[in-house]
Amino acid sequence: MSTKENSGFYRVKEAGLEYQHVKAEIPTPKDGKEFLKRFRENFDLKILSQEGNELVFELIGCDVSFANALRRILLAEVPTVALEYVYMINNTSLLHDEVLAHRIGLIPLNVDPRLFEDLDDPDEATDLNTVVFKLQVSCETQQNSRLQKGKDEDMNFETDPNVIENAELEKAALAATRKKTIETPGRPYTKHVYSGDLVWMPQGAQAKHFPNGIRPVHDDILIAKLRPGQEIYLEAHGRRGIGRDHAKYSPVATACYRLYTEVELVDSVYDDDAKELVYVYEPGVFELVPTSKGTRLGLNRV
Amino acid sequence: MNAPERSSAFLLDEDSGEQKCVYTADTKVTNAGTFRLNKEDHTVGNLFRMQLLRDPNVRFAGYYCPHPLVHFINLKIQTNNSTVAPVEVLGSAIEDLANETDHLITQFQESIETWKRENDTEMTSQF
After folding, report:
1. CA of B93 to nearest chain A CA: how many angstroms apart?
2. DNA-directed RNA polymerase RBP11-like dimerisation domain spans which residues (chain B) (predicted)?
3. B7 touches chain A (CB under 8 A)
4. Which of A31, A38, A66, B1 has a Cα at 20 to 30 A from A124?
């Protein structure tokens, strides 16, 4: 039994001698306490970067199945709040009811799901387990707006006269409606319905619990486009759910992991051979280390 | 029309008295048995299997999902000697995993604190 860590033996083959490596056997832990001790010593978690909505971190000393389980749970079992039950009052847009409901369900809401309870039966909706949003937008016909042009210029509307006369819209929604209006000459005006148009209706004690209000995460998600004379008026109820139920409840855009292999250099490689080998793997694995004996191939240890 | 409820993939069916875990001892092989974990999938199956294989008392450990449309897994365990039962071995595996996860939580929180201190950026209340 060799005492070196990378012991091995020679295997005689037709092509010649082949060196077979045998890594030193680490004895399996006797029981749970020893396993846990070993885990605690070897395990390390380093956060590599965090930008905006993306977090990259490194798990060292942990098993693949653990990382995979973590990934699967992030995708499927972390609860979120999203809109589920959509009650249509008037929908004269080009999108079918169910298509519109589907799109509204996919809009991410800026709510902490831990503050809500689970809702099993939509009949038993209370303020503890349901969020209510209202969407009421309509596209003015051009004739009406042209007639009102005289009137509007007296009022303090800074934008084009095609803004609908519904002054109950929130400021953010107004800003959203001003963005990106398509005005091609000869074609009727198109109204874009954005996620910022969704208005939160606080139920019961929710106004107290959420003083900052509940909004969608992004205000500029395009839900539908309306032509003059079309209207959408609906009420949407949201509840808590998990990704396994429906993908809209998944809190992550994506969660992935990558297993880094361990590369060991058995023998030192110098000069020309080293230069050739540097580019064998993807850049960053090997590096050229200048030593007294020449340029040696080294491992890039992060 | 024939589609089953999505929630039947992860909620136990109380009407038929479904239990989370059902154990059947193996008749032909000693110290072996099969656990049927209802409403579970690879997330937990692979994790248990890997943890069981690290136990020196376990001779055989494997899991499979019989069909993707029926939501349960079968976890087969065989231990080395008749003094240790498969049930005990699975129990200790689950305990070890729970401790491992606890340690992961604390380590993660420490790493976040270190990151915040090092970078000193304006972190939102995401964390």
Report:
1. 8
2. 34-106
3. yes
4. B1
CA dihedral B115, B119, B124, B127 (to 10 degrees): 0
- Subunit contact A28:B56, Cβ cutoff 8 A: yes
The β-bridge relationship of strands A286-291 and B72-79 is: unpaired
Tell me which residue in B54, B92, B107 faces A45 most closely, judged by beta carbons.
Answer: B107
CATH of region B16-119: 3.30.1360.10
Per-residue pLDDT tens listing for chain A (302 residues): 334 455 677 777 787 777 777 766 667 677 777 878 888 888 888 888 888 889 998 888 888 899 999 999 999 999 999 999 999 999 999 999 999 999 999 999 999 999 998 888 888 888 889 999 999 998 887 655 544 444 444 444 445 555 544 544 555 555 555 555 555 566 667 889 999 999 999 988 898 999 888 999 999 999 999 988 999 999 999 999 999 999 999 999 889 998 887 777 777 777 787 777 777 777 777 777 787 776 777 776 65
Pairing of strands A199-200, A294-299: unpaired
- Domain coordinates in residue numbering, chain B: 16-119
pTM over 0.90: no
| Prediction ipTM score | 0.87
Separation of alpha carbons A35 and A29, rounded Å: 5
- Copy the structure tokens of residue B26: 């193996």
